[in-house]
Amino acid sequence: MDIKEYEAMSKIDLPESERALISEKAGMLKESFLSLASVGTNGVEALVTVLDIQNVLRPDISVKPFSRKELLENAPASHDGYFEAPKTLD
Amino acid sequence: MSYEVVIGLEVHVELSTQSKLFCGCSAMFGADPNENVCPACSGMPGMPAVTNKKAVELGIAAGLLTNSEITRVMTFDKKNYFYPDLPTGYQITQLFAPICKNGWIDIETGSGVRRITLKQIHIEEDAGKLVHDNRCDASLIDFNRTSVPLIEIVSNPDLRTSEEVVAYLSKLRLLLSFAGISDCKMQEGSMRCDVNISVRRSGSGKLGTRTEIKNLNSFKAIARAIEYESERHIEALETGCETIIQETRRFDDGKGETFSMRGKEDATDYRYFPNPELMPVCISDEWIEAVRATLPETAQDKFTRLTKELNLPEYDAKIITGSRNLSVIFDETMQRFHNPKEIANWIIVELLSIAKGDNKGEDDIVIDEKKFATLMKLCENKTINRNVAKKILIKVFEEGVDPERYVEEHKLGMVTDTAFLENIVRDVLLENEKSVLEYKNGNQKVIGFFVGKIMNKSQGKADPKIVNELLRKLLDD
Amino acid sequence: MSYYISGCMTGKNDQTLVAIEDSIMQKGRPVTAGSKILSGFTSPLDATVISRLEAGGYAVSGKTKMREFGLLPLCEEACEASGAVRAVADGAVSFALCNDFSGVTRREAAENGICYIHPTYGCVSRYGLIPSACSMDQIGIVCRDIVEGFGLLSVIAGNDEKDGAMYPDKSYVYEPLDKKIKAFVPENVLTAAIPEDKAAVLALSSHFDGVSTELAYFDVLNKAQYILSCAEISANLSRYDGVKFGFRADRYNNLDGLYVNTRTQGFGLDAKLALIMGSMVLSKEYYTPCYEKALKLRRVIKDSLDFKSYDVILLPLRITGGAYESSAVHALAALAGLPCVSFSYNGGGVQILAAPKNENALLTVVKAVTR
């Protein structure tokens, strides 16, 4: 199965050493998934969560349990209170 | 060959909540970078999203104000793409069951009233902000704005001119700001507009190729961008020298032109899917009515009330109801001083010009309505004259002085001692014999000159009524 | 100790020590979810389960090694059981907490002579759990003694306002039911079982009356689960991009390069497979036949269960086939949000499932057969 399209979507680029194995597994899985077409589900509504619960809502109160310092501590690169990443292309 | 320009708008509006859509961080504008951030809205794992109730209610309110159908079972979805201002790599938005559908608002332009229909309104989280730092050739990322709640108002392609577009946006802004749903300030980014535009031959049922214009920062820029882009489309259709392709374009405010972005966005497959950790929100009739009951008077209703009940001239009412801030100032002052025409005058003539001098627009004026009302009362009961009052207003606006105390401290009370004033009038007339002669020769305008001189000699505190009476008496002798 | 990644408490075996799989966050400590992509990340928060177990008199012994994001080992076979299972099996601790959405841990536990409790989905807070598949993730308990395991469960389970996908019940009391348990022992699943487990299930089921009809949709359970989990995982793994925290590739030319190199180097084979399949099943072309189909199957599968006719479902832990095929036997709990316990019995591995929030039926069975 040609997985390059999905690699791009996932922002990965498999080295050749990995591609053969993963393509093979991907192909097997894809075939397995598509075989589901034979299982009848006409008129059935999708079930996104098994919980039959609604309206889990939070009151509109602002809190600040974490400091900026704590959050930036994990950043591989930061500058003047900002997280830093290579420039975007536009 | 005549052409029809077809425009649809996607307006993003930041909701006026205290906290963000899916975490408890502050949603307030203007904080230092990354001060309103937690692990959830900076993309760290481990903090499940929990929906902000107020955001849902503001969405319901927006639906009510736009005559929309409110969805009874509302859900959230994940929209997947990579960009540095999107720390989790997905935006939580609504594709499958947006909060509202099929609304409309009426707009008024030079050509009359038109109804603009809406496709839908959905709630979604905002992204962060990127700051490009040339010095270190990097993108600096601030997640303060990440997950601030937005509603996206999607119109149908019903608009036809830039005038209609501005009328539509102004109407939306009035509706939403009066209801406290958003402060709709384009300059702060709490209201943003993307324009979808295409051109077709008049009478054609088919839509032309559509382009999207982003990065428009003011109503003016939007109007100019529409003018430019519609011309570009028309020229392409007429001369064929350019082919219009479906793409996203940016507007260069300086040049007044649109230019192509790298077009990758259109090819992105966002792989939307329902968010399984956010339970559906069931919106009952009772809840909708409860929200409806909290809606304040709309600008439209206020205009009717000011003109019909309070007998304000339409001109005055239009200015006051054209800005939520001015309306609030008007209402609050009315609570303390029951003279609508006086208040309207003071706001429209004096307050707006003071603010303009201070580079502030109608939406930015801050004044203590209690002190404002007091100033008008002092004028009405003749404690001070109008000129003095105008000067004190500046002090109230800039420094927040208490008018009564200020009058006392600076002895600005109106001078009504007739004998005292008569002396001054006589002095002025004696000093300006030439002007007296002009008056006797029929030049009525000289009165104003005399009044000015008398005011000067009385530090501006003379009672103008008495001054005028005295002048007439002495001059006509 | 080879079970732990870091921070292990030495000393004698304390009844109240709990090992924590490295998917559960502890404030100020590194956490990796078994992945290189999180190397260097220090957790800024404590998972709710950690605060609760500490308040309940338990103590964290250390973080155990785990398979990357708890994924099904389709590309890379696991050469040894997870650190959590080994630590309990060796007697170093009495309990360990894990997220067993894929079902591998409960099988490993039984294979090593110990037990696993997988709670009802929505009973234990996921705050502070590094997410894999949100609709299936649930923190469960590796234990030597199931009854004691339920004691720990009652301490950590209960509604947490910081996790919106939970039942409202503030606490749970686990005690045996005073009734005769009826068991569903699906014959089609039994036929697929490896011999030891088939024998174990039959021996276990002899204690109970019940039904032995077929388990509906058995042959599609693994497919539905993998589709849904890989889709959710692909979205949950997008945040790992080298920008804000964790691993960042050494070399890259631009932003895209940073993303691609970081993620390609940082993720293992099974994670990459899940990313690719997740992107595929959510793509425009395959959303309807794959993802939406699996969501519909989830409903028919859940609806096909009839907990009025039986209290528990008895299943083998291992059926024939590779990792993917044999995951069918674990998928039911994940798809329907059912609680499950696994243990070894009569030389084989068994698992018992019950209706949501009916852990008491499981406890009843366990007490009945381990008398």
Q: Describe it for me?
A:
The complex is a heterotrimer of chains A (90), B (477) and C (371). With 90 residues, chain A is of the alpha+beta class. Chain A has a domain at 3-37. Chain A is built from 3 helices and 3 strands. In chain A, strand 2 and strand 3 (82-86) form a beta hairpin. The radius of gyration of chain A is 22 Å and the shape is flat. The two termini of chain A are 33 Å apart. In chain B, strand 14, helix 3 (219-239) and strand 15 (247-252) form a beta-alpha-beta unit. The longest helix of chain B is centred in the middle third of the chain and has 21 residues, at 219-239. The longest helix of chain C is centred in the C-terminal third of the chain and has 18 residues, at 287-304. An 11-stranded mixed beta sheet of chain C has the order 1-3-2-4-6-5-10-11-9-7-8, sandwiched between helices. Chain C has a single domain, classed as Amidase signature (AS) domain (Amidase signature (AS) enzymes). Strand 3 (82-86) of chain A pairs antiparallel with strand 11 (138-142) of chain B.
